[in-house]
Amino acid sequence: MKHTLFQRGFAWAKVAVALGVAAAAFASWLAPCLAVETKTAKKQQRQQQRQRPGLPESVTADPPSTIMEVAPIDRDRRPAVQQAAAEIDRLLAAHWQQHGVRPSPPLDDAQFLRRISLELGGRIPSYDEARRFLASKVKAKRADLVDDFLESPDYVSHFYNYWADILRLLERPQRSLVFEPYLWYVKDSIRTNKPYDSWVHEMLTADGRLWENPAVGFQLRDAGMPLPYVDNTVRVFLGTQIGCAQCHDHPFDDWTQHQFYELAAFLSGTQTQSRPMGRANKGSRPMAGSGARSLLKEAKERLDKPTAFVQFVKANTTTVSFRSQPLKLPHDYQYEDAKPLSVVSPKVLWGEVPSSAQAADGREQFAVWMTGHDNRQFARTIANRMWKKVMGVGLVEPVDDFQPGNPPSIPELLEHLTDEIVRLEFDLREFVRILVSTDAYQRRAVVHDPASGTPFRFTGPALRRMTAEQLWDSILTLVARNTWAVQRPTAQDVAAAAGIDVEKTTFDAAYDTFETFLAEYAPPRRMRQLQQTVGYRGQLLVRASEMPAPLPLGHFLRQFGQSDRETIDGSRTVATVPQILTMFNGQITHSMLEKGSVIYDNVVEHTPQEAVDVIFLSVLSHTPSAEDRRLAREEVLTADTPAAGFGNLIWALLNTREFIFIQ
User: Fold this and answer.
1) Radius of gyration of the chain (CA)
2) How many CB atoms neighbour CB 77 within 10 A?
3) Are 258 and 338 in contact (CB under 8 A)?
4) Which residues contact 576 (CB under 8 A, 6 or more apart)?
5) At 80, is the secondary structure helix, strand, or coil?
6) CA 607, 612, 613: angle at the middle one, nearest 5?
7) What one-character DSSP code corresponds to residue 566?
8) pLDDT tier at 637 (50, 70, 90 boundaries)?
9) Where are the alpha helices (DSSP H) in 453-597?
10) What does the alpha-carbon distance between residue 370 and residue 107 come to, in Å, rounded to a whole number?
11) How far apart, in whole angstroms, are the C-alpha atoms of residue 219 and residue 232?
12) Which of 9, 201, 206, 605 could form a disulfide with 656 if both were Cys (CB 3.0 to 4.6 A apart)?
């Protein structure tokens, strides 16, 4: 017998009911509103109201009229977008014909709505959004929806999560590094739609302290590890793995150890360490003078536990600067092309440093070469990354393993996408706009097994499970009316609370600033403040992009595969048993039961007969089929109370494959 997705989920919901999760909770929740309240239900409701704090007012209130100013989309460019999308479809159609494959069926409006909401906004559509879109008769409503999301805070939040995984964004990668300004910088670069080549160039060449020039965070992420910094930079921005060549010639590629050191020689003068207790290296810019030494000396004399204050002073004296210095080969270098400890002359991996930068310092030469329009590998890498972001599989897999033995699955398409990125002057948002406007993207998802060895033909996007962040933000959409009650602090916010002039301030003034900083940004105190503002049973009801990083292992986001941000692209979507238990009985799913949640308000505002459609639209973004509507109403009528039946229905849908996967 063939089971519907609803029936499969409903079977899981019965397990949840057996565990005492759904029926009693929903009975006490909805009973008063559905006129089925009994004495027992009243007693249960009073008990539960005493036991749980309820939703914080900050998330049940209406969101502010302006959450953030996002760079607007140029709607006059739609004809050019459609033309560019059609060319991609033409190349794919030729590939399908060559290999005798047929495209997947096109998406209907409900499927498109849900996919584009998750793809561009990182969440499912709300009930109101689904109702309006499906009822709309506007011919261009799909293009309108795409453009609306691309210039929304949801887009900024979702793509911040994407880059946070790649750039390994943490609030405290080291104890003396206060990284909130850098995290804000990444988010703000997305908000303003900064051209990708300019963005990368800024990060590679930035000087100063974190809250003065937040782009220095990229160089500070690998502070004290100059060779891994080169490896990580090339992996992220050039899609090339040269890390093995740090110690020996690459065993599977053409890169040699000598080439690795030649490239690293461009960056050997980068200084990322403060020296508040001593002198700077000969020939380098002093990073901290007598003022810092005096502060630290006085701290040791006056404070019983000076460690935290010492770290605060180091944060104020940690700065990035550059002055060219020679780089030598390691003492155990064993190849015949050079001698150990010999000085290496800078040289790029391919091509030449553009003439416009040849008189600049090594770091600038490296950045201009990497991000230049003539360096097709830079454009090719980001084109492949964005293609995978949208379609689920890269034309080159893994995305950071471009090499002769790993050719693209459709070479002509990858080269065309590379041309497009350059033509758009590295406007990533406009590039994504083109990709999601293709017919290929707007087709049903296709199952792909990476282990099969069969090339993916892109007859539709690959079927994917939601990322941890998409899943969290989707459940939050069912709970919070204001999902932006908290946002990350800006660089200016941190500077006001943490910045001191170590050469001019007194110890007492510095210590006053230190205490202000602790009160606002010390992780334990910051967490307590967040709990007071948006906390619910230990969870923070805010967008995943605004969460502390990293989160503890037991947090919902970590359970569902969010990276610890220690490795590039470290997130996972592998299923585990704890994930199932969390979906059944986790605190974030319980928050849907509280008075004032979005789904609560939407259900109680409708009659019991209408509520089934409301629940389906809220959770799955479409109305139920005739069979699912019959099954749902049967469950509601046969449950102990209608409220318990509605609870079972919501739990059933929340635990279906249809909810957790992006079709």
Assistant:
1) 28
2) 14
3) yes
4) 559
5) helix
6) 95
7) S
8) confident
9) 468-479, 491-498, 507-521, 523-534, 556-559, 577-585, 587-590
10) 39
11) 11
12) 9
* pTM, full prediction: 0.91
Residues in Cβ contact with 80 at an 8 Å cutoff, skipping those fewer than 6 apart = none
**Minimal CA–CA distance to 260: which of 280, 246, 279?**
246
Question: Quick one: which H or E segment has residue 316?
Answer: helix 307-317
Distance CA 427, CA 422 (A): 9
Identify the DSSP state of 642. Answer: H
pLDDT, one tens digit per residue, over 332-364 is 999 989 999 999 999 999 999 999 999 999 999
Token pair for 264 = 């690293």
Q: Is the dihedral of CA 14, 20, 25, 30 positive or negative?
A: positive
Amino acid of residue 456: F
- The answer to whether 304 and 297 are in contact (CB under 8 A) is no
Integer Cα distance of 338 and 265 in angstroms: 15
Distance CA 117, CA 409 (A): 28
Q: How far is CA 604 from CA 32, 398, 588, 598, in A?
A: 9, 48, 20, 10
**pLDDT tens digits along 177-201:** 999 999 999 999 999 999 999 999 9
Express each pLDDT in 357-405 by its tens digit.
999 999 999 999 999 999 999 999 999 999 999 999 999 999 999 999 9
